Amino acid sequence: MAPGRAALPRPLRLLCQALIAGALIVIVIQTAYVLHTSSPYFNWEKPTHSPPNGRPQKPQRLPPSSKWNESESTPNCEMFPAAAFAEDGIQVTLKVGGAESRELLRSHIEGVTRCIPNLFVVSDMQQQIGPFITHDLLADVVHVLSEEDKAAYQRQREDYYYWNKRLEPSKAGWKLDRYKFLSMVEYAYAQNPNAKWYVFTETDTLVIWQNLVQLLDRYKWIDPVYLGSPTPGRQLGTWWEPQPTFFVYGGSGIVLSVTAIEHLLHEAGEESAEAESDHESQLLITKFQDMVREDCCGDSVLGWVAAQRDVEIKGLWPMFNPHPLHSTPLGKAYWCQPAISFHKSAPVDMVELWNWQQKRLKNGTDPRLILYSDVVDFFDFESLPVRQDWNNADMDAFDAPTPEAHDSFDSCKEACHNHADCFQFTHHRKKCRMARVIRLGNPVLPDGEDDLETERSLAGWDVVKIKAFKEAHDCKEVDWPEPSTERIF
């Protein structure tokens, strides 16, 4: 023993050694427990640890993975109104699926969606999509899924994570989508409760974001606002006195103010506080799980819950349009209205429209809102007035009234020019069809291979008439329609 240093009595020394050994055992046990529980049992996704406030971590946004790098191009975001999408502004959530089309996903990676600074991407599976990591909503609500849907969800995860199969769209996968609507609303609010507006879109939703920003400036986020294209939904009331409700069609985008979401969630929170068991889920979808399971569509259930909780829908069709961009009929009805969104649009249209918007804004030729009348300029019929293997006369169309109009494409073209109501036409198999509206239309395949000239469909546009119509209907003022559930798609 060193001089000047007092020795501890032997009993006290043994007690200290026992305490130290006990502390080391506790540390080892705690470490083993943390290592065992910090990742999911099947190790399908990275662990998510909750920060001190109890909220889940915000979605990660990483550099593009190698499988997306080959042909990926970064969009030009110079003219994008990023300031409006600050954390306390507009929060956008993109809903995708595990078996989503790669072309559609790429249209968001290479298009305007990538310009949104605070984007959330939610899905039925955790995946890396370009710079985004999707959040698996179904992992949060697996207790709500029917047995059949649980099996489909499990099968999808096994195929992707274990067997490296490329997932294909299926009816079983489509049925999983209905569980995402209530879940994504609550998830977006939990991730960012500071936003004033919450916008929910899908992979085939084309949104003109500059127009949406100006639309939301016309509404107050302190009101319970629920915007989009109205669709008839479930009945409230009794069977002898039913009260019809409407829901916002998810395909063309759903907009909710923060006040509307708080209306939806506040009652659910009170009900959860009164639940008999502390172990019951407090998520909104738990209360409506039976309805979600029996309904085909989650946006329908969201509309019914909104009606129950005094969140009134403000129908804004056709600004929120269920039509694809290439199939939207353009005419007097909403010529001077702003176009906000389109559904089921082709991936190439989504990217090209954004590039066209960028050039339009950069040139400074016309800084106003993009109206439906401007979509005609985007299509640029003058550069390509005739398309082969195409049909542009399958909406608001009629047969040419004179027999000679059906003889050939040229005779059909002349007949259209001479008919007051015809803007465009399609000639196919000695039949001339004329259309009263302006639209791009769709590609079609030849009927056979014997005589391609007669079996091919030729479409044309009367560019002289279309130009004259635009000049005669110059939109000096923007037509902002009032909300209505009588005006529906």
Give an overview of the whole structure:
With about 500 residues, this protein is of the alpha/beta class. It folds into 2 domains: about 65-315, Spore Coat Polysaccharide Biosynthesis Protein SpsA, Chain A, CATH 3.90.550; about 385-480, Hepatocyte Growth Factor. The chain is built from 17 helices and 21 strands. The chain has helices at about 10-35, 65-70, 100-110, 135-140, 145-160, 170-175, 180-190, 210-215, 260-275, 285, 290-295, 300-310, 345-365, 370-380, 410-420, 450-455, 465-470, and strands spanning about 90-95, 120-125, 130, 130-135, 135, 195-200, 205, 225-230, 230-235, 240-250, 255, 315, 320, 340-345, 385-390, 390, 395-400, 425, 430-435, 440-445, 460. The strands form 6 sheets. Strands 5-2-1-6-11-8-12 form a 7-stranded mixed sheet. Strands 15-21-18-19-17 form a 5-stranded antiparallel sheet, covered by helices on one side. Strands 7-14-13 form a 3-stranded mixed sheet, with no helix packed on it. Strand 18 and strand 19 (about 430-435) form a beta hairpin. Helix 3 packs parallel to helix 13 (about 345-365). The longest helix has 28 residues, at about 10-35. The protein is elongated, with a radius of gyration of 29 Å.
Determine Rg (CA atoms, Å).
Answer: 29 Å
The biggest beta sheet is recorded as: 7 strands, mixed
Strand order of the largest sheet: 5-2-1-6-11-8-12
Task: Note the gap between the termini.
Answer: 94 Å
Question: Helix segment count?
Answer: 17
**SS class:** alpha/beta
Main location: membrane
Biased composition (Polar residues): 66-75
Pathway: Protein modification; protein glycosylation
Enzyme class: transferase
